[in-house]
Design a protein that fits this description.
The chain is α+β, with helices and mostly antiparallel strands. It has 3 domains: about 170 residues, Jelly Rolls (Sandwich); about 40 residues, no CATH class; about 70 residues. It is built from 12 helices and 7 strands. A hairpin with a 3-residue loop joins strand 3 and strand 4. Helix 7 packs across helix 8. The protein is globular. About 5% of the residues have low confidence.
């Protein structure tokens, strides 16, 4: 089974792991915020080599990018991981938990916080486990499943619990993140994005790397690729229409971008999606 440390922060949305008793993962530094669901079994979590907490079957916690984790498997354990970078969140969800932060202050804490996984989400996760094992669905399908998870969270948990559970993702430098998310699709380059948030280019790059754990150029390229991947997977627009919408100077440039960022040309992605769809029928 793949080690947690080998996971790409850009390509993965969900991951499945089954670890044997006494298995250990030392000094793991998450490259992207993630929710870790303990479906069965139990684990000890050591945070920054100091705090130790036990997470039991059908509980979940958030792993932050600015903490290191040591994980000890207490008994054979099935983990399901969902990556939750800030760009995955709808603005309405961010606003719901961060607007009026003064009213939520009593729920904010630096302490480790876990939540029980409600029955409806357990059913959702076990079905998702089947989809992951089949490996016949396109990336866009799993993005939709992540959005479905967010809907379930906001439908079945009170806001005060979600504030404590998600504060490390949604509260740190949130105003800066909001402005970036509002503007990154409207600009052509890093310099224009820095100007849109009233930063010098050098100051913006430093702030951005702190908040997003990536360079702004690489992050913007990946977000552009993510949107293009979704458009191709939907199959509503022609490939030329997508190339035009994202202002590529030529179809060849568009194709080369997809090859570099997504690992396949647009026509190859279409063919792969068709194959996966036919295999799932």
């Amino acid at each position: 089974m793949e080690n947690l440390g080998n996971i790409s922060k850009h390509r993965k949305i969900w991951e499945n792991f089954i670890f044997p008793s006494d298995y250990q993962i030392e000094n793991y530094l998450p490259l992207s915020p993630m929710i870790i669901f303990v479906l069965t079994g139990s684990v000890n979590i050591r945070i920054n080599s100091v705090e130790i907490h036990t997470v039991y079957s059908r509980e979940m916690f958030v792993a932050q990018i600015d903490h290191s984790y040591g994980i000890t498997i207490l008994q054979q354990t099935h983990l399901l991981v969902c990556y939750i970078p800030i760009e995955a969140w709808h603005e309405k969800w961010i606003d719901r938990l961060t607007l009026g932060e003064e009213g939520n202050e009593e729920y904010m804490s630096d302490e480790f916080f876990k939540l029980p996984v409600k029955k409806v989400i357990i059913r959702f996760l076990f079905l998702l486990d089947v989809y992951l094992k089949e490996d016949t669905f396109p990336l866009y399908f799993f993005e939709l499943k992540r959005q479905e998870l967010f809907f379930l969270f906001f439908s079945y948990y009170p806001d005060n619990d979600l504030v404590r559970f998600l504060q490390s993702v949604l509260s740190k430098d949130m105003q800066f993140k909001r402005v970036v998310m509002d503007n990154y699709l409207k600009v052509k380059n890093v310099q224009e994005l820095a100007k849109s948030v009233n930063y010098s280019t050098s100051g913006f790059i430093k702030k951005f790397q702190k908040c997003f754990n990536d360079s702004p150029y690489r992050w913007m390229q990946m977000q552009k690729a993510r949107h293009i991947s979704v458009e191709i997977s939907r199959g509503v627009k022609s490939l030329q229409e997508i190339a035009n919408e994202y202002k590529f100077s030529s179809y060849q440039h568009f194709s080369g971008f997809c090859k570099a960022q997504l690992g396949s040309t647009p026509t190859e992605i279409v063919a792969q999606n068709r194959l996966k769809t036919s295999m799932n029928i």
